[in-house]
Amino acid sequence: MGLLHFLLAALPLAVSAGPILARADNTTVDCAPNSSSGLKAECWAALGMDKYITEWMAANGTKANCDQLGFAQCFLQFNGYTGLTCNLITSDTCSPFQTNSPEKYYSNQQFYALWNIYTIYQFFNQYSQALSNGASLAGQTIDAIVAKVAPPVESPTSQTGLMKVLGSTLDIVSMFTGFVPGDSGIMVGFIRAGLGAAFGLSQKLGQTLGVTQTADDRFIQLGDIGSKLAGLVSDYQDNLLATVQEIQGNHTVFLAACQEGGFSQRVTTALTIQASELYRKLQLFVLSSALKANGIVSSRSTGVKVLDFAKTTDEISCEAFSEGGNCNQWWYDESGGNTYALHNPNDWENTHIDLTFAIYDNGWATLDEIFKVEDCAGKDPTFDASTLGFSCLASHSYCEWNYSSTPNEARGNGQFTNCENDGHWGYLCGSFQSGILVPESYLGPLLTTDGWTCKKLSSKSVSMAGNSSDTQWQFHPPYQQPDQPSPEREGFQRKIQGSCHCGKVRFWLSREKPLAAKYCHCKDCRVIHGAPFQWAAIFHKSDIEFENGARGLKFYNSSSKETEHHLPCKVSCAHCGSLIMDEGRNMALMFPTLLKLDGGSLRRNFEIQCHIFYPQRVVNIPDGKPKWTGLDGKSELMEEKKKEDEEE
Question: Could you tell me which residues belong to the region Disordered (predicted)?
């Protein structure tokens, strides 16, 4: 009955011409399903498919129940193809239409409408398969990127942002769309242009690809993306299904996708696309996010050509460019005439040479994508529906060097033209010296005069505790001295005072309540403290101010068992030995027994929330607080029971 309805309704819309049709340029095109020259993109326009489908919907849309079924399914069912489901991305629900039996079709227009429905299904189905095929290897690559850059453990990124970036794979896969061997075809740009038009017409499509499955945005740690990529891809494929259903269900969007004729030919998607290609933009996004989490920026020496500059000084080494376009840590942009280098405001002695080579050698990104981020620094990735392209996948910070001719000018002028000075910019190299400390990323004129720069401070310029060879940590919280202002210390207010037993070490806290407080029962803490457990209160390092900076402090790394400032480490008074805090990579664990907690409200602020490493305890504390087998939130909760009960 459905087929009869179609035949009656479609009679006025039938194409009366034979299979050879005239084109606007007075040439002819064979649009028969069994054409010896194959299926052609130009047949969409030659057959007037936009007009045909628009008029078919006007005449038959209500009878075919298109409002409920959507265009593709109602067209299929009305034409008698009730067993096909072409608005999914699962395999084997929409088979190709026969091209060697043209008598099965009422008109060439009917055939090309059916064929475009099938090829859209085929494209997105194979796109989904390609995503699944590449997810495992891509996850391993992302793990390698994060391990190399080594951002802080707590480095979250938005899951919605990741879903949007996964949408960049549509751009990549459309470029790898090819043709069945032996069949003729046109540029894959027709498919890209058609999809771009569909996305531009329906804003819903771009929004659909980027949404998460919950109302509230979720966050995922950078270090977890690799292991969780398969799950993220699965969520994205759910969004992809909604995209397919919008294209196949809305005949106006369907026409936009097909208007260039890209889906009118025999097309296939290369399922063998390497994961490094398909997920390449995701790799770039993760790499940039890791750099950002580590505080690493792209620094630009404007108008400096590193090869020429290296000939004027022995302070840097650069003899030739590598295949990736870099010379050690330096990358030269031929088009702009500028030299770039990675720069960490908190790690001036790091050249980042290994990281720079790893980025190119492993195919994580091209170096121009990492260094030339001037237009995207601080921005979110943006999807351009009309081109299927993404911009600003790399959005870590960019700083332009502000070079001065003399050390005195450099100390008085800003370090950068567009960024704040680093915390120790302008430090003299040593007592009775005029040269200033500069980072490895510096490529300015001071390097050409002996004695005007140094890469390390003189041993006489700073009184250090411990035996670490890295001096830079002492210029940052919590050791940055009170008379050294910085953005990290802006607005610091002394609210709680603390001191060691002898009083030689004094410090202040800028907040009256820690971020968290807990008892640690691990063996290391018990042995080092000579106590049944350690009471620790967690603060940001910028919440702490030592009166004399690092002077008078002693450091101990429990892993190496050496007295060195190597994080994480124990910090104590060098005179009386009072343990003051545990310094981690991002936080500090203060010991509240050293604080002047005047008043009951202050003391209550330091009450613990939980116990950690409780199985290692030597004393039971039945206080009703949560008791974790290891770190809180990352191990199992224990029942509160006596130790002797466990031993039984």
Answer: 625-648
